[in-house]
Every structure is written in C-alpha cells, then in structure tokens.
Amino acid sequence: MNKNPHTYSLDQNAITRYRMTVKTGKLSWWPKGEGTDADIYVRLIGDKGQTNEVEITSLIPGNALERGDTDTFTVNFENAIGNVKKIQVRSDMSGVGPDWYLERIDVQPLFGNKDVGKNVRFAFNQWIDIKKVYEK
Ligand SMILES: [Ca+2]
Ligand SMILES: [Ca+2]
Question: Rounded to two decimals, what is the model's pTM?
C-alpha cells in the first residue's frame, strides 16, 4: 500500500499565516539612527482582500528593528487574502529617535510551519519617519 492518508489538497487562498523577515538598513559605517523603538504595524493586501493590521514589534523578542539587523517572526492574520500583492507599513513614531530606515520585508506564506508558495519581497530602501501608511 502506497496510499498516504494525510494527503490533502492545499488551497492557497486559505493561507493566513506568514513568516516575515524584516531588514533594517545600515547606511554607512557611521550610525545614522537607522533603528527604531517605535511600534510598527503591518497589513498585507492580496488579490482576494486585505488582512487586519498587526503590530509586528510585539512579535519580535528583545530590541526589535535595530541598525543592520534582520528580524524574523511569524504572523497569524484573521483572514485569508489569496496571493500577496502589496504591503502596508506604518509607525506610531513613539520613543526616542523613532525614524526607521526600512530596507526590505520578505513575506513567506506558511501552512503550519511549512513554506507554501513563493516568498514575496518588498524593497523599501527608505525612511519611515512620519505618521502615514507606506505602501509597496
Ligand atoms: Ca531611529
Ligand atoms: Ca528597537
């Protein structure tokens, strides 16, 4: 018998879980305040809708989003959105020196802890330094 009872058909549209990898920039050898201690919020937009907004800084242990750092964490959203097309990022601009140089965010769809589908990379390479929604 070769039958696998655990075979399932995975509906890509049912994904609500993602691994995100956020890279904070390091613009030169001399620190320019690239890191931040502000609260950062993210929302994903797909071809079938958009997620709720999640505060990613509460999902990162220790001092999140510091100069040159790569922070990796898993996010569970409330609803599925189909294929990821865009991302929105905003800062509450709290704390000392809240300006943040965001290099990029990678978004990998997960089923359980298994990668499914392609990683989507959003290149920002810009300062997040006012209270507005930045979309890529
Ligand atoms: Ca800063
Ligand atoms: Ca920080």
Answer: 0.91
